[in-house]
Input
Amino acid sequence: MAISDVQKVDFLWKKLGFGATKTDINSIKGATNEAIPSPLFLRGDKLWSDSSLIPVVIPEATTPFVEVYSDTNGNTTVETTEDITASARRTWITGIVNWIPPEIGSTYQVKVYVDNPSAANPESTGTRLFAAGSGNNDEWFFDYQSGVLNFIGTNLPAPVTSGKVIYISGARYTGRFGTNSQEATFGNIKISGNTIETIDENGNIILSPDGDGFVNVTSPLNLTALNINGSPFAINDLNDAVNNNTNIGLGANSLTSPSLTGLENLALGNNSQINTRTGSYNISIGNDSATILTDGSNNIVIGANAQPSSAVTNNEVTIGNDQTRDLRMPGPEFFINDGRVLIGKSSTSETEKLQVQGSASVSDLMTADRFEGSIDGGEF
Output
């Protein structure tokens, strides 16, 4: 015995209306008592990613997301093909899928016409057939997903006679499909392709791992501005100048010579080591520091506009620029002041190049052209 229509309807009622699995007849277990979920299968590759861009009212002409089929816009009403596997003239195929249904807007409900084959303007020369029929049980149903029309009523409409064909006027969706690499919004965040941005002007994007979690960046990070604890980072026009030779430059134009082949140089400051080429293992700190350096290696240069002794010098430490007059180590009271070395004193009116205040010990040969001083009250 075939399954009764009542059972079929009960199955659809529970499946479509309640998302539930039918386990018994309705008189024993109604839809609200079916406990096993059975949601409809939604294919990710069939999701209309740009559905929000479909206008509520069908446009007069084709847009990037909506293709309109009508005699009036140059994209003519679709001539269908009879499905010869069904009853005669009962089912008609457009060959076009993803028609936009009237749930988007009532004007998307397709219009159906019957006319001669290859009619140029069936909306004008044909006879329109309405979904509700003519009152003779001759209704039709259109499947918007498959693009197939079926005369679902008991009778065919009177104009649908042998030799006639059906025409469909409406619109189909032509936007993007699927969930991957598409645009999505979450609260104030919009993700489109490889871009994450805020919807509200001046909105923030907050990355907040829980517990001991970190925000990890596994590839180079490019920044046009950087705030630390709410304050702008002091380096102007921060550059991520890491290249394949592990050189690191922070600051506009630092380590940017097109001839740079050196290894493991570190430059902090705008224009720092701007001309470094084959030099390696150099460290420079300060705006415009080590700008003359080209091929020297293993140098340390500290200070704004501080420069090594030459472009090719090696193994040298430079602190300060040519305006720096004093080198001071206040802990041990050691000064280099205007070409004089002072040990144990910070200033003097004397002219000697080396001045020591306090005891001095020499454990090896000491040579001088002249000695002056006193020992135990005597002079020499």
In short: The CA atoms of residues 300 and 317 lie 5 Å apart. The longest strand covers residues 165-173. Residues 326-379 form one domain.
